[in-house]
Transcription elongation factor (Helobdella robusta), 290 residues
Amino acid sequence: MGCYEEVVTIGKKLEKMITGKTVDESQGLDLLKSLKALPITLDILTRSRIGMTVNNFRKTSKNEEVGTLAKSLIKYWKKKLASTSNNSNNNSEVGSNPKSDSSNTPASTSSSTTTTTKYSSLPIKATSTTNAVRLKCREMLASALESSEYNVDFNILAAAIEDCIYQEFNNTEVKYKNRVRSRVLNIRDVKNPQLKIDVLEGVIPPEKIAVMTAEEMASAELKKLRAQLTKESIDDHQMASQGGTKSDLFKCGRCGKRDTTYNQVQTRSADEPMTTFVLCNACGNRWKFC
């Protein structure tokens, strides 16, 4: 078993303890010691997100030795991450402009900043939590946001988005879960890559993506199609309402009155039910149903 597989296995065991009712402190301590002994690279840290798991386990554990060891691991990994990042930046600068010490011309400066990697600096914040549901939601969002083209802390960005959603509902019930799930599905949508790019580059900040509707998150192509279908529906509705039947069977969702005119049109195949178009004569609200 390779180092990455061992780290993933340990991470799963720690997550199981976090979500469980009881925490085996001695087993958790042994797992942390195993992590400390492994030669974990930056790539493994990024792919496995073991740092977030260890930090969450530290928060749920009441054992002082576990907390101390977890903190030391996280501190060591942070230093390693910062050191690797600095070395990478220095090597990039030196490699792209080997004559930088003897030349300060604009041309040399331009060549030293050329890179194929996209970077993003996001001033984002999120409150910490030990709630298992919220932590799982943050993990799902981080997984959806992951991209090798961006030097972004996906965990922090995901935590900020989740925090904005939680602040709106102040609970982790159905509406909260549905909101998180819709963000994950839309960000992962391969037919709408621009949404993920906008979130990672900060064009769409956490507080905005947290409240966007499905229509707002849709791709430009889908928005255009929806607009076209809506226009066609309105045109059909307006044509049908001219010879409609007045009725008090329908209640307007806008004004609450039952002064309506309706008409039924076969908009789909013959074996499908007819579509009913309704017009509120009081306020002009229009709707349809099958």
About this structure: The longest strand covers residues 260-265. The chain has a mean pLDDT of 78. The chain has 13 helices and four strands. The CA atoms of residues 3 and 38 lie 7 Å apart.
